[in-house]
């Protein structure tokens, strides 16, 4: 169908499933084990209801914001997803170019199909990019990448902490990944790769399961970029990150692709806000320690719920993959435009003319648990 018939982010998924190579569909859509967390990532948002405020002048509405001090046209960023060329020959370049057009921030994955330099060179002057980091067992490799990224103008480093070992994505494993085309995967410097268990396992053997809190001072010594831990899943770890002086955390379960039965980021958000409030007097959102959420976000209403509960912004993954796999760069631009239209309407209906006007009182989250 033509792009004009796409009404929402879910639509891209159905189309991608039809048009994508089976191997790519398996890698993009799969989640861990029985995919319970993947489903929960969506259902958690269904437990939050709005308490709109009426009789507010909403003639003008503005959904722009700042993320780690950088301007963004909306409180959404394109999160890191590996292997873009499985879905489209231009891979992650589709995301870079669409992000430029729509004024959103792209998080470049360590395991992009395009090289890091290609994605940085494709950015427009002033365009913000972050880097997602898988930490290599060889710390010199990681140090070189981080320092190169900082010199190239990357504005935030998101260290993935929920993947000391890749989860079992059985749909993907059944496809028995064979990288016929070595250019599909950016060189990772990993030899002896096991290709018998799907795309994910095949490319991830360099990731260091020894990564720990002890490494944080080292990261701080090699870069001045804001450091964010991606994949935090309990308030105790968010508190440690804050106490160590990090810039924020992404409350995420990796799109349900790691530990099955991990909770939704939205559930975790509620407990983090409560406990960091109690323990350190923090009020969210704030500029000193920012909370991000990803997993299952498909509507501006999902984003608004997370913001009402204290998030600064949310990451979206699969819908952009499905969009470029089906329609290239234009598909991603269309997805972002749909979100913009949704923000405009829903902020009006909620009585919040700007992102900063979205308040805790605008949601009923009593069906989310907090411990
Ligand atoms: C991911 N994700 C991910 N995260 C990360 O830190 N490094 C990575 O290389 C990848 N790769 C990756 C590939 C694919 C195909 C998917 C779907 C996801 C996780 C990603 O950043 C994010 O946490 C989730 O995708 C968010 O959930 P949704 O929006 O896809 O539901």
From TrEMBL:
<keyword id="KW-0285">Flavoprotein</keyword>
<comment type="similarity">
    <text>In the C-terminal section; belongs to the FMN-dependent alpha-hydroxy acid dehydrogenase family.</text>
</comment>
<keyword id="KW-0408">Iron</keyword>
<dbReference type="GO" id="GO:0006089">
    <property type="term" value="P:lactate metabolic process"/>
</dbReference>
<keyword id="KW-0479">Metal-binding</keyword>
<keyword id="KW-0496">Mitochondrion</keyword>
<dbReference type="GO" id="GO:0005758">
    <property type="term" value="C:mitochondrial intermembrane space"/>
</dbReference>
<feature type="domain" description="FMN hydroxy acid dehydrogenase">
    <location>
        <begin position="1"/>
        <end position="368"/>
    </location>
</feature>
<comment type="subunit">
    <text>Homotetramer.</text>
</comment>
<comment type="similarity">
    <text>In the N-terminal section; belongs to the cytochrome b5 family.</text>
</comment>
<protein>
    <recommendedName>
        <fullName>L-lactate dehydrogenase (cytochrome)</fullName>
        <ecNumber>1.1.2.3</ecNumber>
    </recommendedName>
</protein>
<keyword id="KW-0288">FMN</keyword>
<dbReference type="GO" id="GO:0004460">
    <property type="term" value="F:L-lactate dehydrogenase (cytochrome) activity"/>
</dbReference>
<dbReference type="GO" id="GO:0046872">
    <property type="term" value="F:metal ion binding"/>
</dbReference>
<dbReference type="GO" id="GO:0020037">
    <property type="term" value="F:heme binding"/>
</dbReference>
<keyword id="KW-0560">Oxidoreductase</keyword>
<keyword id="KW-0349">Heme</keyword>
């Amino acid at each position: 169908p033509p792009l004009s018939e796409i009404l929402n982010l879910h639509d891209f998924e159905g189309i991608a499933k039809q048009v994508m190579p089976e191997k790519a569909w398996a890698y993009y859509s799969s989640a861990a084990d029985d995919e319970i967390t993947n489903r929960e990532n969506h259902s958690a948002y269904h437990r939050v209801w709005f308490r709109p405020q009426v009789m507010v002048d909403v003639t003008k509405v503005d959904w722009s914001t700042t993320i780690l001090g950088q301007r963004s046209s909306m409180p959404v960023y394109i999160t890191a997803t590996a292997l873009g060329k499985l879905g489209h020959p231009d891979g992650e370049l589709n995301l870079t170019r669409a992000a430029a057009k729509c004024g959103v921030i792209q998080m470049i994955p360590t395991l992009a199909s395009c090289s890091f330099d290609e994605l940085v060179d494709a950015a427009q002057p002033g365009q913000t990019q972050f880097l997602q980091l898988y930490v290599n067992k060889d710390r010199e490799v990681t140090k070189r990448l981080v320092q190169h990224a900082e010199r190239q103008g990357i504005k935030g480093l998101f260290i993935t902490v929920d993947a000391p070992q890749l989860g079992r994505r059985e749909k993907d494993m059944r496809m028995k990944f064979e990288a016929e085309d070595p250019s599909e995967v950016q060189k990772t410097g990993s030899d002896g790769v096991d290709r018998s268990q799907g795309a994910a396992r095949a490319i991830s053997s360099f990731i260091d399961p020894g990564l720990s809190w002890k490494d944080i001072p080292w990261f701080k010594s090699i870069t001045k970029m804001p450091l964010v831990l991606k994949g935090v899943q309990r308030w105790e770890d968010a508190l440690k990150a804050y106490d160590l002086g990090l810039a924020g955390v992404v409350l995420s379960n990796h799109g349900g692709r790691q530990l099955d039965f991990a909770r939704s980021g939205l559930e975790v958000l509620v407990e983090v806000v409560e406990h960091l409030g109690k323990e350190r007097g923090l009020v969210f959102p704030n500029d000193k320690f920012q909370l991000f959420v990803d997993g299952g976000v498909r509507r501006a209403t999902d984003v608004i719920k997370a913001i009402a509960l204290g998030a600064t912004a949310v990451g979206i993954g699969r819908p952009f993959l499905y969009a470029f796999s089906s329609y290239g760069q234009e598909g991603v631009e269309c997805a972002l435009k749909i979100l913009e239209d949704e923000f405009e309407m829903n902020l009006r209906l909620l009585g919040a003319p700007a992102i900063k006007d979205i308040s805790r009182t605008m949601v009923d989250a009593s069906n989310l648990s907090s411990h």
